[in-house]
Every structure is written in C-alpha cells, then in structure tokens.
Design a protein that fits this description.
Strand content: 15-25%
Helix content: 55-70%
Number of domains: 2
Number of helices: 11
Shape: elongated
Order of helices and strands: HHHHHEEEEEEHHHHHH
Largest sheet: 6 strands, antiparallel
Length: 359
C-alpha cells in the first residue's frame, strides 16, 4: 500500500514539476531572445545565430530554475490532492506527517541528482559553447572589452594577453618574469600562443625576448618559445562563463590557481559552495510545500497556494543571488553565504510544519 502511494505521489509531483519547468523555460527563453534583439544585425550577428545561442543556454536555465519548479510543482500536486481529500485518505490510512515527509525526500532525491548532473556535466560545457558561438558570430574576442587586455599571474610571471580568441588561442602576448628577489628578469612579446595538451605547455610564436642581465640588456628573437604553465585553456575558459555556471572541478582548479598565486578567490569559493549546496535546495523546496497540503482550504485553495509558491520561489532565487553578492562585498565565510538562503527556507518549512501539526 505504501509503495502504491509513493508511486502515485511521485507521478503527480514529477508531472506537475515538469510542466512548471517547461513553462518557465519557455518564458525565460523568450526574455533571453528579447535581450539578443539589440545585437542582431551588428557585426554579422543574424537571427538564426541568436536563436541557436538562446537554445544553447537552456541547460543553464534548467539548473537555475529546477528548485523553483520543484516547489511550485510539488505545491500544486499536493494541494490538488488535498482539495480532493486524497491527502486526508492517506493520513487516515496510517501515513503520518513525518512519513509523508520521508516519502517526499525520497522523491526529492531524483531532483537532487538531476540538478547535480545539469550543474556539473551539462550546463557548464553548454554555457561555454554558447559563449564561444556568440563570440564567433559577433566577430568578438574574450578580452576585447578590457582596455589593457587580460592580466593573469602565474607563479613568478605576470601575463598580459591583448586578445583571447573564442578557440582559446592568444594573440599579442606579453610575459613579465621576475626572480626570487622580485627583480625583473625578462620581458617576452609574442605574436601568438597556442596550448599543446600533449606537452602541457603553451607554444608562443614570433617571440621577441628582452633579458635583463645585471648592467646590460639583451634582445633575442625566437621563432617559438615553450611556456610551461598551469594556466590551461580550461582555466582561462572561466572568463567566458559566470562562476555560478562553472563545474565543481573547474572551480576547484581555478581556486587552487588563485590561492597558489596569492590572489583573492572569495567569489569563486562562494560559487563552489553554492554548487555543492544548490542541488539539496530541491529537498528544502519540497519540505516547504508540504505544510500547504496539510491545511484544509477547499474554496480557491489551489490557485492561492500556487501563487504563494511562485512568490516563495522567486524569493528564494533572489535571496540566493543576494547572499552571494553580500558574501563577496562583506567578506563573509563562503559556506555561510552559500548555506544561508537554504537554511532560512528550511527553518521556515520546519516552523510551518510545527504550526500545522499543532492545529
């Protein structure tokens, strides 16, 4: 009997959440397309290219919207069941509030896995490919919006890249290398740079190197120069993807690179913690939906509760972004900034369940 009820609840919740997610994706895709209209016709950017770009960023939208869709879908499914007295029948048949919560958590595990898979394996490469597609379509470069180009630190070297192309090759590269006493050892100007994965190094072409040798300098022209570095194209690809849409492995690698070079990695640490915590937001959303199903409003109850669920979902989405920004601005602990929104909604769900049970 319990297995039958669990399957029934799972079918209703999955169906409602899927419908809500599709509706949200259609709405956000429409807004994303509207944002692209200003760029169409500029630098050869055409309508079909904008449509392809919008489609390519949909996996990222799925990752962002799935917890909200779970909240609204679960809320709709449970309140519909309550309106037809099916929840009452379940409780009379021996399903307590705690047991119903356990059933919801089991169903929620499906959403946790789905959010993690999208956030780690589908959305990051899709987002990166979308940005590369847009850069190629608009004849742009990654670093073209920076007046002095891209600056990165790699151990004793400071690298300035004037142009980073969508295929992650470089043009007009300047490398400043320092010794252990922070004295300038050499300046290397290269026309091009390509990464050779089998050598795990960049190969710079058309190099003019100025060496500072005590009381004199030496200028050497080299057809090629090999530069061994931890700055792989994957690390540099963070420039094309927001931290929140990067994979855990990429975030971890870039954080380690920033720490080794004694640079501030706070923003990326918060994004890493958010990536680890965010899938479990689906469980919090389902727990938050349960108290609404246990109230007994029949007249107009479903529509009012779904509207309230939409407001809660939007509030969670905004609160998540707000605490990320506040964490960076105020220097909060990354776990605190990432966990607080989910903790607030979890306490709210616990308080509402306690209130409903006491009634």
């Amino acid at each position: 009997m319990r297995l039958v009820l669990t399957r029934y609840l799972m079918r209703e919740i999955l169906s409602a959440s899927g419908t809500v997610l599709l509706a949200f994706l259609g709405l956000f895709a429409f807004f994303d397309f509207l944002n692209e209209l200003d760029s169409i016709g500029k630098d050869g950017y055409e309508l079909y290219q904008a449509l392809i770009y919008v489609v390519m960023i949909i996996p990222g939208r799925v990752y962002e919207l799935l917890p909200v869709a779970v909240l609204i879908g679960t809320l709709y499914a449970l309140t519909s069941l309550a309106r037809h007295s099916e929840i009452t029948v379940m409780r009379v048949s021996g399903m307590s509030t705690f047991r119903m919560l356990r059933v919801l958590m089991g169903i929620g595990a499906i959403f946790v896995v789905a959010i993690f898979v999208f956030g780690e394996y589908i959305a990051p490469p899709a987002e990166r490919a979308a940005q590369q597609w847009r850069l190629v379509a608009t004849n742009s470069t990654v670093s073209s919006h920076l007046r002095s180009g891209l600056w990165v630190k790699d151990g004793p070297r400071f690298i300035n890249v004037q142009t980073l192309l969508p295929d992650r090759s470089m043009q007009d590269v300047r490398i400043y290398e320092f010794d252990e006493q922070h004295g300038l050892r050499s300046i290397s100007d290269a026309q091009t740079g390509r990464y050779k994965s089998h050598q795990q190094a960049w190969v710079l072409g058309g190099v003019r190197q100025t060496r500072f040798l005590g009381d004199h300098t030496e200028v050497v022209d080299l057809p090629e120069l090999q530069w061994a570095s931890e700055l792989t194209p994957e690390v540099l690809s963070v420039l094309m993807v927001m931290p929140e849409r990067m994979s855990v492995t990429t975030l971890f690698a870039y954080i380690n690179h920033l720490r080794e070079n004694k640079q501030n990695a706070e923003r990326y640490e918060i994004a890493l913690w958010k990536k680890l915590v965010y899938p479990f937001a689906a469980l919090v959303m389902m727990a938050l939906a349960l108290p609404f199903a246990l109230t007994h409003d029949r007249m107009g109850g479903v529509s009012v509760k779904v509207f309230f669920g939409v407001m809660l979902g939007i509030g969670f989405h905004l609160l998540n972004g707000l605490f990320s920004n506040l964490g960076v601005i105020n220097g909060w602990s990354p776990p605190l900034a990432a966990l607080t929104p989910s903790a607030i909604f979890l306490f709210a769900a616990a308080g509402m369940l306690f209130w409903v049970e006491r009634r």
